[in-house]
Design goal:
With about 325 residues, the protein is an alpha/beta fold. About 30% of the residues lie in helices and about 25% in strands. It folds into 2 domains: about 240 residues, 3-Layer(aba) Sandwich (Rossmann fold); about 70 residues, no CATH class. It binds iron/sulfur cluster (SF4).
């Protein structure tokens, strides 16, 4: 999807969770959390994955990092197929792709000092000696805007924003090329959100980092994104540059998300589409276009025929019978 040689390339990615169902749990059905996702991220690029809760975006993040095993599809990192690599073969690639979590407090060990938290990923790699480790941790604290004396403190002594800086320092420890950030600022106050987003953008420029940035908050996405993939019920329904999507969303679901977002600069051209009801269950997704049960533009064909994600005349991808 991006012009530069891809850092991450995902094709046909699926994750179906089996669920025991029915009387006495005898029947097994599949929760189709991710149901055929293709993604490409170039070095230094931020791809935002957006959608409501239950769209499958966090599961995509975990699949990309091999924190959960895919049901189908391939994941290539720096040109190498890592989809089925065992723990030993996966080690070098674990260094290259790291995660920043939503809740920095829950993701930091409360009994470890901040210095130890940041140094821990380095300890798994014996080629990095003790003195190199110490120097690296000091450099990382400086890089994320934490004072050196913060190394001796424990997570509870930090503010939310500082804890997220600590989470970012830990993710950077092994020089990754890609960071998967799952709602990294949604637990923070708005003023602190901007500081953390600016830090992430500065680090991107300095280090050439790519981000897979997962968020339900379109204000945040507008700030940080280069490209945006909109997910609905385990599939991407629109993929576009950030500017194209915000100026003129083509898929009715993207239009509804943007219409509902409290963005500071409402675009005159934006169509008003009001999203009603909840996202349907991924156990039994609607036939045809999965969005037809909530789409104000749905017509007969939508109930029976699944639209494919295809290129549009204005250079994006969308899966809607109205924009083919
Ligand atoms: Fe709406 Fe039909 Fe387009 Fe689906 S295919 S988004 S139901 S108009």
């Amino acid at each position: 999807m991006s012009a530069a040689a891809p850092l991450l390339q995902v094709e046909g990615l699926k994750k179906h969770f089996p669920l025991k169902h029915g009387l006495f749990g005898g029947e097994v059905v599949a929760i189709r959390a991710v149901d055929g996702v293709d993604l490409t991220i170039a070095p230094g690029e931020t791809l935002c994955l957006v959608g409501e809760s239950g769209s499958g975006k966090s599961t995509v993040g975990k699949l990309v990092l091999r924190l959960t095993e895919p049901t189908a599809g391939t994941i290539r990192l720096e040109g190498v197929d890592i989809t089925h690599l065992g723990p030993d073969a996966m080690r070098p690639y674990r260094r290259r792709a790291q995660m920043v979590f939503q809740d920095p407090y829950a993701s930091l060990n409360p009994r470890m000092t901040a210095g130890k938290i940041v140094s821990e990923p380095l300890e798994n790699y014996p080629d990095i000696g003790a003195s190199a480790r110490k120097e690296r941790v000091a450099a990382l604290f400086e890089q994320v805007g934490l004072r050196p004396d913060a190394m001796q403190r424990f997570p509870f002594e930090f503010s939310g924003g500082q804890r997220q800086r600590l989470g970012i320092a830990r993710a950077l420890a092994l020089n990754p090329a890609l960071i998967v950030a799952d709602e990294p600022v949604s637990a923070l106050d708005v003023s602190v959100q901007a500081q953390v987003l600016n830090l992430m953008m500065d680090l991107q420029e300095e280090l050439g980092l790519a981000y897979l940035f997962i968020s339900h908050d379109l204000g945040v996405v507008e700030h940080i994104g280069h490209h945006v993939a909109v997910m609905y019920l385990g599939r991407i329904v629109e993929y576009a540059t950030k500017d194209a999507l915000f100026e003129n969303p083509r898929h009715p679901y993207s239009q509804a998300l943007l219409a509902a977002a409290p963005l500071p600069d409402p675009r005159a051209k934006r169509e008003r589409v009001v999203l009603q009801g909840d996202i349907p269950s991924p156990i039994n997704p609607p036939t045809g276009c999965a969005f037809h049960t909530r789409c104000p533009k749905a017509f007969d064909r939508c109930k029976v025929e699944t639209p494919q994600l295809v290129p549009t005349a204005d250079g994006r991808l969308a899966s809607c019978h109205l924009v083919e």
